[in-house]
């Protein structure tokens, strides 16, 4: 939620995927963060904007802090 609060983007929830060979055999927990889609013109513009990049980073950091109760 912190990422969505920081960026104003919609929370599309969490999805599982067991077809990604790069992470299937990992012996440690793996998380993939998708910030947007480069095929979506709006997402692509946002991801190129330094101010939006900062909001994305801050939202991720805030979410990690929230998870650990910091």
UniProtKB/TrEMBL annotation:
GO terms for cellular component: outer membrane-bounded periplasmic space. InterPro entries: MurNAc-LAA_cat (IPR002508), N-acetylmuramoyl_amidase_3 (IPR050695). Keywords: Hydrolase. The keyword Hydrolase applies. GO terms for molecular function: N-acetylmuramoyl-L-alanine amidase activity. Residues 5-65 form the MurNAc-LAA domain. It comes from the Bacteria. SUPFAM superfamilies: Zn-dependent exopeptidases. GO terms for biological process: peptidoglycan catabolic process. This is N-acetylmuramoyl-L-alanine amidase. It comes from Candidatus Pullilachnospira gallistercoris.
């Amino acid at each position: 939620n912190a990422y969505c609060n920081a960026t104003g983007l919609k929370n599309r929830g969490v999805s599982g995927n067991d077809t990604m060979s790069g992470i299937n055999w990992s012996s440690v927990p793996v998380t993939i963060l998708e910030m947007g889609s480069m095929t979506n013109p709006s997402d692509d513009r946002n991801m190129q904007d330094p101010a939006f990049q900062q909001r994305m980073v801050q939202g991720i950091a805030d979410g990690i802090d929230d998870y650990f109760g910091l």
